[in-house]
Design brief:
heterodimer; A: 265 residues; alpha/beta; six-stranded mixed beta sheet; four-stranded antiparallel beta sheet; 10 strands; disordered N terminus; B: 285 residues; Rossmann fold; 2 domains; 7 helices; 12 strands
């Protein structure tokens, strides 16, 4: 975030307070509190089972917490309670101001629909009814995520893993959301493809000024993308702070372990 | 139909009165919420699923001894399915008259077509529907499509139309082209050709839809707005074979293509046999 950007001084666009959620005896979330400011990339890191994906689902309104609340401040400045705004309002948010990038592109894409249709779906969901415009916009976005527009009529099944993930990103960003949830967007891709994808995400996020909540177990990805870092363990936030501070000077023993476990290239 | 051909021991129009009441209740609900699919307890009927069990149950629930019933299959009154359904009702509904004339009928049960002769107030169209869910091919989960209907979240259907244009260069399927009813519910018009879609719009007749296997009823009340989905720059165009009926010379009706020999000979005839016959009789007179 550039120092001159004033939006960071605004109110947070997403706030979570006292989030708790148990699955039987397992405390998946334990009194979690998080703030996200406009245009900020927040990474949630932690090992498998630490509750980071659950937290993402709760933040995005896909799962309901046992206790606590998530509030979102929309473009008009109205503060909305994510879990009590009702499904129609939540769905409208999810296809306009929000986006969700899944780990497995298969979950985020329609595999039976062409690349153009996938990108155009959100446009059509918010009322676009001009075929030529939708196609032109889809084509622009394919180019933007480095997919040749000549492949606009191919189905995602014909794409490589990295291309599918880029297509999912185009499909999510086409309506220019303010807030995007990303669940391990680089998971399952090989290292060189990961690097390109991270680069692409970083470029798009800073160009469009999107706020991102990024869940990852990849410390390197977090360092590259995130402004701020939240470290989770056993459903609790054990440490949070600016990315460089947390990674260069970890305070909590678990964070120290996590950072020291990263293989040096 | 002679009395000997009538089956003894059945309630009027085959279904028991309790079942008819249940179906009528569902129909009232369907008429009250045009285009919305209403679940009903579909009964086992003496013919296989896919042959019109939904339509037969609707017809049986609304038919009375003073009604005049017409049954068409692919527009024709003389095809197997149409003949056997008509005979079925003649046997189980004493007093009911059957007809092949659209203008005489009070109830028209149909598969695949809406008659060419314009319908009038007081007539009831009963459609046999194999798949009532217009989103079925895009979203197989029933719970999810129900939610999409409830939220009027129909972007998905538009995606399918987008795909059609991207692949075939034109909007729409040649049959079962989805429509918006009353500006609210997305509805499958049953497998009628898209040529017939405009006839549903502001029709003076009551239109009832029955899907027996899927256990759903829905309805379009008279004078309801029915719009075929399309794009601004690719408007909906009803499809029709570019030909002339070889029997009556009509150029404005929906045509079937017939292969006449094994040397590539083919001709077009009207799919609506009643309309075609009327035209021929008028020409001969």
């Amino acid at each position: 975030m550039s120092p001159g950007d004033e939006s960071i001084l605004d109110e947070p666009i997403l706030s979570a307070r006292n989030l708790s959620l148990s699955f039987g005896d397992v405390r998946a979330l334990d009194e979690v509190a998080i703030d996200l400011w406009p245009g900020e990339v927040l990474a949630i890191v932690g090992e498998s089972g630490s509750g980071k994906s659950t937290l993402l689902r709760v933040l995005a309104g896909e799962a309901r917490p046992d206790a606590g609340a998530v509030t979102y401040r929309d473009t008009t400045g109205t503060v909305l309670d994510v879990h009590n705004m009702g499904e129609p309002a939540l769905r409208r948010l999810a296809r306009t101001e929000w986006g969700f990038v899944r780990q497995d592109a298969r979950d985020g894409l329609r595999m039976g629909v062409s690349a153009g249709g996938n990108v155009g779906e959100r446009l059509m969901a918010v009322g676009a009814r001009h075929y030529g415009d939708i196609r032109a916009e889809a084509s622009r976005w394919l180019e933007r995520v480095e997919i040749s527009p000549t492949r606009i009529d191919d189905r995602p099944g014909l794409f490589s893993g990295g291309m599918r993930q880029r297509l999912q990103i185009a499909r999510t960003l086409v309506t220019r959301p303010r807030l995007v949830f990303m669940d391990e967007p680089t998971g399952g891709l090989d290292v060189s493809v990961q690097a390109r994808l991270l680069d692409l995400i970083r470029g798009l996020v800073s160009d469009l000024g999107i706020a991102v909540v990024l869940v990852t177990h990849d410390i390197a990805a977090a360092r590259l993308l995130a402004h701020r870092l939240v470290v989770m363990r056993d459903g609790r936030v054990v440490e949070e702070g600016l990315t460089d501070r947390v990674l260069d000077d970890p305070r909590h023993p678990y964070t120290q372990l996590l950072v020291s476990s990263v293989l040096a290239a | 139909m002679s009395a000997a051909m009538q089956n003894e021991g059945y309630n009027f129009a085959y279904l028991d009165e309790g079942t008819k009441r249940m179906i009528r209740r569902a129909l009232l609900k369907a008429v009250a919420v045009p285009g919305c699919q209403i679940p009903f307890g579909s009964r086992e009927m003496p013919l296989p699923y896919g042959w019109g069990t939904g339509g037969i149950q609707v017809t049986a629930s609304i038919v009375g001894p003073e009604d005049v019933l017409k049954v068409i299959d692919q527009g024709a009154d003389d095809t197997t399915n149409a003949v056997s359904i008509r005979r079925f009702f003649a046997r189980v509904a004493p007093g009911l008259r059957t007809t092949e004339r659209t203008v005489e009928a009070s109830i028209i049960q149909t598969r695949h077509r809406i008659p060419e002769t314009p319908l009038r107030e007081g007539q009831v169209m009963v459609y046999q529907v194999p798949q009532p869910e217009p989103l079925y091919k895009l979203e197989p989960r029933r719970a999810e499509t129900k939610r999409l209907h409830a939220l009027a979240d129909y972007g998905l259907m538009q995606v399918k139309l987008y795909e059609d244009i991207a692949r075939h260069g034109r909007v729409g399927s040649s049959y079962d082209h989805p429509v918006m009813v009353g500006g609210r519910y997305l509805m499958a018009p049953s497998p009628i050709p898209s040529f017939d879609n405009p006839k549903m719009h502001m029709s003076p007749a009551l239109q009832l839809f029955g899907a027996g296997r899927e256990r759903r009823l829905y309805a379009v009340p008279p004078y309801t707005d029915v719009r075929s989905l399309d794009f601004e720059d690719h408007p909906f165009v009803p499809l029709r074979a570019n030909g002339t009926c070889a029997l009556c010379g009509a150029r404005d009706t929906y045509l079937d293509e017939m292969v006449t020999d094994d040397r590539g000979g083919r001709l077009f005839v009207c799919s609506d046999t009643d309309h075609c016959g009327t035209k021929q009789a008028e020409a001969a007179a």
